[in-house]
Amino acid sequence: MTEHARRRIVQIRGAVPAEWENLLDLDPTFAEAFAAYLASAYESDVLPAHIRELLLLAHDASVTVRDVDGVELRVRRAFEVGASEREVLDVLFLLPFIAIHGLSEGLPLVLDRDRYDVPDATRGAYWAAFEERFPGVHGMMAAELPRFFDAYRNLGEVIWRQAELEPRWRELALVVADMSTTHLFTEGAAIHIQNALRYGATKDQVVAAIALTTTFAGAAVELGVRAIASYRARNR
């Protein structure tokens, strides 16, 4: 049965890491069930292979996750299954915007939403969902942090103007980053889900993207098994 587990891990990781070999020795029954669990979230016939890797990269490189090993793995895997360097960069360049959530949540704690209008720079169909869920926030930024707001808008325009990755996948990358277990910013995810659907993503693709966030569960076991192996090696 352990060969089934190895095949599933190869599918997800490209190889069987030492941590998984150790886990198979420590508890093959759990390893088999856990590999099946992770694979069930990873496997999808509605997401292209390179998009799946790019979405996992968005998760692991996000400012609230910062999984160094995961980023290395997903960049390599994305290239191996056909992603371009520009597509990888497109995902990475989106992720700093996750840090804006501190402002979107924090400014209304200090300022009165009702005193601020929507700036001209964030009017229009794309921003409507943001203005609905975070009324006044862009107005607060424009009025109280004008240099930052101008830089924020310019950065967004540069990123979207140069992007090669399709808009629906860019939006799903932000959904995955928002729905990581270390962030769970559901209000932001709701906006990006709406945008992804508007750009042509299917509900099945959105669901498959969200399911990918559960594969991060592997990190908890892998880190612990690595520590056990290190302890054994020191005390052998």
Polypeptide structure, described:
The protein is mainly α and 236 residues long. 71% of the residues lie in helices and 0% in strands. It is built from 14 helices and no strands. Helix 4 packs parallel to helix 6 (85-94) and helix 11 (167-178) packs antiparallel against helix 12. 34% of the residues are buried. The model has no long low-confidence stretch (mean pLDDT 96).
Task: Record the SSE blueprint.
Layout: H1 2-13, H2 18-26, H3 28-42, H4 49-61, H5 68-80, H6 85-94, H7 101-110, H8 125-133, H9 137-144, H10 146-162, H11 167-178, H12 186-198, H13 203-211, H14 217-234
Overall form? elongated
What is the helix tally? 14
Structural class: mainly alpha
Low-confidence stretches: none
| Rounded average pLDDT | 96
Radius of gyration: 20 Å
Q: Count every beta strand, where a strand is a DSSP E run of 2 or more residues.
A: 0
Major sheet size, sense and barrel closure = none
Strand content: under 5%
Q: H/E element string?
A: HHHHHHHHHHHHHH
Helix content: over 70%
Ends apart, CA distance between termini: 29 Å
